[in-house]
Amino acid sequence: MGIFVFLGLSLVVIMHELGHFLMAKFFGVAIEEFGIGFPPKIFSKKIKETVYSFNWILWGGFVKINGLRPEIERKDLPSSASFIRQSFYKKALIIAGGILVNFLLGWFLLSLVMFIGVPKGIFVSDIKAGSLAALSGFQKGDLITGFNNSDEFNAYLQKNLGKEIGFNVKRDGTQKQIKVVLPSQKSENKEILGIYYAETGVEKTGIWKSLSDGFLNSCILVWSYLKGYISLFARIFTDISVFQNLMSPVGLFAMGSLVSKAGFVFFLQLLAYLSINLIVFNFFPFPMLDGGWFLIVLIEKIKGSPVSPKLEMILNGFGFFILFSLLLATTIKDLINLF
Hints:
Elements: H1 2-26, E1 31-47, E2 50-65, H2 88-116, E3 118-127, H3 132-136, E4 143-145, H4 150-159, E5 164-171, E6 174-181, E7 195-202, H5 207-235, H6 249-260, H7 264-282, H8 290-303, H9 309-338
Helix pairs in contact: 1-2, 1-6, 1-7, 2-5, 2-7, 2-8, 5-7, 6-7, 6-9
C-alpha cells in the first residue's frame, strides 16, 4: 500500500505541472521538457520540441517552459512560441493552469467520494501512550464502526463504564473485534480509552448531485484554506507553535498511509483535500510559488518593461531559502514524530 500512497500524493503535484503544460500548449508556447519525478533521468523521449522524461526521484514533476525570461529564449523557435512574448492574459492563464487542474482534480475526487459514499464511524487519528486503547490493541488509522457520530460513541462508553465491551474495527480492509474492559470511571483527564479521533461519514449520492455538491464543497474548502493560511502567516513570526501545523512530504506520506488503513475511499478524500490545499498555498504571492510568478508578470505589465533579472534572481533565491528551510524544519519534525 505504501507505494500507492506515495504515487497518489505525487499525482497531485504532477497534475499541477500538467496544468501549466496544457495551458502553455494551448497558447502555442513551446515546452522544452515535461518530467515525471526529478533527475537523474531513467529515460526520456523527444517529440517535436519537447523532451518527455521519467526520473528516479518520483516525487511530483516539473515543466520547463520556453522563454520564461528573455535571456533563455530558444533561438531555433519562432518568437510566438516564447512565454515572454505572450500577452498578459495568456501569461496569467498559463500560470493559473496548475491551480485550475488542481481544482478540477479536487472537485472530481470529492465528487467520486460522494458517489461512492464514506462509511460512518470513528476514525482513530492517534493513541495516547500507555492508555487503555494502546494496551487493548487499537492502532492509529483504525475505523471503529457501528457509530453514527461522536456523541453516540461517547454515550456508549459512558453507559458501559466498568463493563467488558467489544468494538468492531476496520483495519487494512479487514474487520476485527477488539474487546476492552472499561474502567469504572473516567481518568483525571476525563479520558476513558485514551484515543484522539474524528467522525467520518459521507452519504452516498447520485452522479449529478455528487458533482454539484463536490463543486460546492471544493469552493468552500478553497475559502477555508485561504482563511487558514492567512491566519498561519499572520502568526508565523510571533508563535512558533504554528510550525506544528505545517507538514513535509514525510508527514504527508505518514498521513496518507494512516488514512489508507481505514479504506481506499478515505485516501481519495485526503487526495482531494491536498489538491485543493495546493491551490491556495501555491498562489500566495511569494517567490518560487505560482503567486510570486504572477506578481512579477503583473509588475511587468504595470511598468511596461521586464523586471531586472538580478532582482528576480535575488527574490527567487530568497524564496528558495525560505521554502527549503521550512521543508528541512518540517521534515525533521515529521521524522521525530514518526519514530
